[in-house]
Design brief:
Elements (H helix, E strand, L loop, with lengths): L20 H18 L14 H6 L9 H11 L1
């Protein structure tokens, strides 16, 4: 708030050669939703910014694919 960091979450996925940018982007989305949940004073519409086209397209996809288990976690977190 007012240029100050309020809170942060971090998650170590493991070695970089074992994970993709796509997985990292989705984990970032999951952590963002968790931060919003912790700060219940947030009212109204919230936007999440992404720069990974595959992750953006996956938000509306409900078919299985590599790493889709993370998108399932993201959708569950939105409920």
């Amino acid at each position: 708030r007012n240029g100050r960091k309020i809170d942060e979450l971090k998650m170590k996925l493991g070695r970089i050669k074992d994970h993709t940018v796509y997985e990292g982007e989705i984990v970032g989305m999951i952590l963002a939703v968790e931060l919003l949940r912790r700060h219940r004073g947030v009212v109204g519409t919230v936007s999440l910014g992404l720069d990974n086209k595959a992750a953006i397209l996956a938000t509306g996809a409900f078919k299985s694919g590599p790493g889709h288990y993370l998108m399932d976690i993201f959708h569950d977190a939105l409920r």
